[in-house]
Amino acid sequence: DRYLVMMGGGGSGKSVFTAQKIVVRMITEKNHRFLVLRKVAKTLRESVFTEIKNVISRWGLQQLFNIPKGTSGELHISCINGNEILFAGLDDVEKLKSISGITSIWIEEASELTVEDFRQLDIRMRGRTQNYKQMIITFNPIDVNHWLKKEFFDNEKPDCTVIHSTYKDNRFLDEEAIRVLEGFKDTDPYFYQV
C-alpha cells in the first residue's frame, strides 16, 4: 500500500521494524531514494539515523553501505547498488521542496507534524518508479482530535494498511523494559494506556 501507518507505544518495535524494512528494500531493490524525516532535524542523528545504522551493523552489512563517520555533517546513507537514504527535518520545509526522485518516505513521530506537512510530503512521492512507493508513518497514540486520527482511522483510506502494536507484540523486548512499562499501570495509568 502507499501508506503504512504504524501506531504503537514505546517498546512496540515499530521503529526497528521500519529501519529493517528500509534496509531490506535498499539491498534487494534498485533505484531507491528514501527520505527519512522528523519534525526537527537535530533529532535525526540520535533516532532514525542511528536505528538504520544499527540494523546494518547487526546484520553485518557494513560493506554494502557508505555511512558518514562522526557526529557532524550531512546525514546520508548510500548503498553500493546506488540506492540512497536522505534524512531531513521539517523545520526547513523549503529545503524539502528541492528534493526530487523520492521513492519512499519514513515519517518518525508523525504526530509532531501538521496536516500541511503531511500533504507536502505526500506529493513528493510521484513519478514512475521501478518499485512500489510507500510512506511509512510511525507514531505513538495521539489525541482524539489529532489530524492523524481523522486521516487514517476515522474513515477507511484506500491503499492504506494500519497496524496498532504495543510492547506486548514485541517478542524481542527484554524483561527489564517490560517491567518498567508495566510499572506504569500503578504509577501513571494514563501513560500506560498511551
Task: Describe this entry's structure for a reader.
This protein has 194 residues and is α/β, with parallel strands linked by helices. It has helices spanning 14-28, 45-58, 93-97, 115-122, 147-152, 175-187, 189-193; strands at residues 3-8, 33-38, 65-66, 76-79, 84-89, 104-108, 134-139, 160-165. An eight-stranded mixed beta sheet has the order 3-4-5-2-6-7-1-8, covered by helices on one side. Strand 6 (104-108), helix 4 and strand 7 form a beta-alpha-beta unit.
Topology:
Elements lengths: L2 E6 L5 H15 L4 E6 L6 H14 L6 E2 L9 E4 L4 E6 L3 H5 L6 E5 L6 H8 L11 E6 L7 H6 L7 E6 L9 H13 L1 H5 L1
Uncertain runs: none
Class computed from helices, strands and strand pairing: alpha/beta
How many angstroms separate the termini? Answer: 26 Å
What spatial form do the alpha-carbon principal axes imply? globular
Strand content: 15-25%
Q: What is the spatial order of strands in the main beta sheet?
A: 3-4-5-2-6-7-1-8
Number of strands: 8
- State the helix count: 7
Summarize the structure.
This protein is an alpha/beta fold and 194 residues long. It has helices at 14-28, 45-58, 93-97, 115-122, 147-152, 175-187, 189-193; strands at 3-8, 33-38, 65-66, 76-79, 84-89, 104-108, 134-139, 160-165.
Output the keywords.
194 residues, 7 helices, eight-stranded mixed beta sheet, alpha/beta
